[in-house]
Design brief:
Bound molecules: pyridoxal-5'-phosphate
Number of strands: 15
CATH architecture of the largest domain: 3-Layer(aba) Sandwich
Strand content: 15-25%
CATH topology of the largest domain: Aspartate Aminotransferase, domain 2
Helix content: 25-40%
Oligomer: single chain
CATH superfamily of the largest domain: Type I PLP-dependent aspartate aminotransferase-like (Major domain)
Radius of gyration: 21 Å
Number of domains: 2
CATH class of the largest domain: Alpha Beta
């Protein structure tokens, strides 16, 4: 927390707006839209809810096809499932670990030839890094397909001079507890389309039609965020840039401390944008290092340090065993060799030294001294 949140929550209490609407909800949306340079922001109960409503607004219906990134957290694909659509997964490119635009081009060309274009494309900005949006946008414009950004993990990242999450028709963000800024749980949907923003607010509040009684002509959802949590979000938004700097400093510490180890390769920062380094991710090549990622995970666990494997690609998940997949083995390789290190902005220098010393104990011939 930044320190401002408690005063903002107190203000919400004193105003008695303890509801999924109120002045903090409105102000959080306005401040978020202004920070990202978009016309409209709608605050919701989770990033998953934002994705679900984004797909519905894009016109996705049961039986439709939706193309998305295979290297992601399951929430992206689950939201597609909620609509009754079928996901098609696309492999990553090496330079960003995000959807390979060339593979998307092939997928859309094939689909067009078969007369089976997807109803929407959902591109994920993974682990704090933007995808390569320009060629992706050109493709979806050419085929006139709505483009949705799942930037749940990448608030604060940039693509050129634009904020990640603003390069599609709709962008989705998460304020889950592990995200770069958090409301405990929450999400945001952004768009420049005022009519869509209005529809999202309508759907998120049980789709109540204008009438003196309760009148409903459409299925709605209870997806709005509480005024209390929006107060937390406003305090958090004030320190977003600081949090990005802190995450990047954590990454730089690791790079200095363990970057010279054999077989260690950090997630690259693509030339087209600035990553937040939401997670410090790396690949471990056991044939060069003599140490497997699994062994490192065990060593961390023995020291009560939480490190994790990278996301398991969606096309390898039992849940999506029947889904279509286009690509090779890039995401599979990132999963097989990938590790996510503790990356929180509250990590102290002592914490970082302790984490780096686990590497030192497993790689005893480490020549370079650990950073002080
Ligand atoms: C890529 C991605 N998409 C969507 C989500 C869903 O966000 P939430 O947890 O707020 O529903 C997450 C994380 O939780 C995520 O990592």
């Amino acid at each position: 927390m930044s320190g401002d949140e408690l005063a903002l929550i107190e203000e919400a209490f004193l105003s008695n707006w303890i509801a999924p609407l109120g002045p903090h909800v409105d102000a959080f949306e306005e401040e978020f839209a202004a920070k990202l340079g978009v016309d409209h922001a709608v605050v919701l109960s989770s990033g998953t809810a934002a994705l679900h409503l984004a797909l519905l607004i894009a016109g996705v219906e049961p039986g439709d096809k939706v193309v998305t990134s295979t290297l992601t957290f399951v929430a992206t694909a689950n939201a597609i499932g909620y609509t009754g659509a079928e996901p098609t997964f696309i492999d990553s490119e090496r330079s960003s670990w995000n959807m390979d635009p060339q593979l998307l081009a092939e997928e859309l060309a094939d689909a067009a030839q078969k007369g089976q274009l997807p109803r929407a494309v959902v591109v994920v900005d993974i682990c704090g890094q933007s995808a390569d949006w320009k060629p992706i946008r050109e493709l979806t414009d050419e085929y006139e397909i709505p483009l949705i950004a799942d930037s749940a993990e990448s608030l604060g990242a940039t693509y050129g001079d634009r904020a990640a999450g603003t390069l599609g028709d709709i962008g989705c963000f998460s304020f889950n507890g592990n995200k770069i800024i958090t409301t405990g749980g929450g999400g945001m949907l952004v768009t420049d389309n005022g009519d869509w923003a209005r529809q999202v607010r309508h759907l998120a509040t049980q789709a109540r039609d204008p009438a003196p009684h309760y009148e409903h002509s459409q299925q709605g959802y209870n997806y709005r965020l509480s005024n209390l949590l929006a107060a937390v979000g406003r305090g958090q938004l004030r320190v977003l840039e600081q949090r990005v700097d802190e995450r990047r400093a954590v990454f730089e510490y690791y790079q200095d401390a363990i970057g010279n180890l054999p077989g260690i390769e950090f997630m690259p920062e693509a030339k087209f944008g600035r990553s937040t380094r939401w997670l410090t991710c790396l690949l471990v090549d056991a044939s060069l290092s003599g140490v497997s990622p699994e062994r490192l995970l065990q060593e961390f666990a023995a020291e009560n340090i939480e490190a994790r494997p990278m996301w398991k690609p969606m096309h390898l998940q039992p849940l999506f065993r029947d889904a279509q997949y286009r690509g090779g083995k890039v995401a599979e390789d990132i999963f097989a060799r990938g590790l996510c290190l503790p990356s929180g902005s509250s990590l102290t220098e002592q914490d970082l030294q302790r984490i780096a010393s686990v590497f030192r104990s497993v790689f005893p011939d480490l020549k370079k001294p650990l950073v002080a």
